[in-house]
DNA sequence: TGTTATGTACACCGCCCTGTGTGCTTACAG
DNA sequence: CTGTAAGCACACAGGGCGGTGTACATAACA
């Protein structure tokens, strides 16, 4: 057990400053945006000295990138790994966004940072591609004729709903879900040989 | 003629500082974003002294709002007033975005400013609603069963393409246009009995 | 025990930002 | 020509920002 130091996460016997910093980032970056959240404020919210923060992260940029990486597991697998839904339902479940989500943080970061080379921007790109890929996988599972295309289309709908929700200050996901239902039904051949679809509620 | 002063635009015999400021805003806010463009840089680009800029605009906030208001005529009417296209083609023409458009400035402003109360944010909301309304009008013209819904859906597609283009650094408008075509065809009854379809689409 | 990694407290730096104060120049109207 | 308003040059205030230096406290392990 003397070798548990130097884990990939770095910290070995402290009192969890890094986690508090990232947790505070999650909250503040969402509520106020990245640019409008200063390191002073962030450290105060995390109950961490600024010095400590800069020992864990070389700079704000790295902190932002790490903050974005923390989202993958929660949303992504939370939707796609549900075995209680048919593939088609899983595709639609991606549009059931809890109202606690003001705007996809990846879009926000890409817009706020405004630099495609920024590590966080690349992280956002990777995430968006991963989501589209998982949507495509599920689309394939649902028997879509062109799963990649459907996945890309659904991803576009999600992003559109997110952006529009932000600009209009009104939930746009139901509208996006309605479009998604149309696209899904159009993409899955009526003779679809998929495994578990039983009811169709198209209108 | 002694009373031509105090026109709605304010300036009466100067050498056009206000126009230069707004023109420079147009360019810089797009290229660099709003937050990353300082007033110093902006005034330098506009060849205007900072003092003059603050005599025309009470602050950066007002300048940003005015900058957004300058977009309405160009894009909006440039697409919808084309009489050489059928209504259906006009709806699709909204997705023909010249590559010189990095991201819808309204979305960018709403994200960057991060304050729904900001005058520019309200301006963005108004614009988005106006676009949706014009899309709905055109949809009605095209004989859509539910024009409002189709207009809202197309607007969502446009915003999704804009956001996705920004995040992925790749043009997403063709994909959005493909979806739009599907939605339009789904929304317009094959037996379209609207008043103004005289041109038999060159299908 | 002492060493070392970790976290803290607080002051501090230089930079850039929005925004002003002041006095001078230019151009047009009468 | 003269008056007046538009615009200009320059310096500066006030503040927030990202980021550091220093000295000290604490927890885990040898």
TrEMBL record, chains A, B:
Gene Ontology MF term list: DNA-binding transcription factor activity; transcription cis-regulatory region binding
PROSITE patterns: HTH_TETR_2
DNA-binding region(s), residue ranges: 38-57
Residue ranges of domain HTH tetR-type in the record: 15-75
Presence of the UniProt keyword DNA-binding in the record: yes
Pfam families: TetR_N
Keyword annotations from UniProtKB, A to Z: DNA-binding
Domain of life, source organism: Bacteria
The protein, known as: TetR/AcrR family transcriptional regulator
Source organism of the structure: Streptomyces malaysiensis subsp. samsunensis
Phylogenetic lineage: Bacteria, Bacillati, Actinomycetota, Actinomycetes, Kitasatosporales
């Amino acid at each position: 057990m003397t070798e548990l130091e130097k884990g990939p996460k770095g910290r070995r016997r402290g009192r969890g400053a890094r986690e508090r910093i990232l947790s505070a980032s999650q909250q503040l970056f969402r509520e106020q945006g990245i640019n409008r959240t200063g390191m002073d404020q962030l450290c105060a919210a995390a109950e961490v000295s600024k010095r400590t923060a800069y020992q864990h992260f070389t700079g704000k940029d790295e902190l932002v990138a790490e903050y974005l990486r923390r989202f993958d597991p929660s949303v992504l697998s939370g939707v796609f790994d549900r075995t209680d839904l048919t593939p088609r339902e899983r595709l639609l479940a991606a549009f059931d966004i809890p109202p606690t989500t003001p705007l996809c943080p990846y879009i926000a970061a890409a817009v706020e940072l405004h630099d495609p080379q920024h590590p966080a921007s690349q992280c956002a790109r990777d995430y968006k591609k991963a989501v589209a890929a998982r949507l495509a996988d599920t689309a394939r599972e649902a028997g879509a004729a062109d799963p990649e295309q459907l996945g890309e289309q659904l991803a576009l709908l999600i992003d559109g709903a997110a952006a529009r929700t932000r600009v209009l200050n009104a939930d746009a996901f139901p509208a996006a879900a309605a479009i998604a239902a149309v696209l899904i039904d159009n993409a899955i051949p009526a003779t679809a040989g998929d495994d578990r679809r039983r009811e169709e509620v198209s209108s």
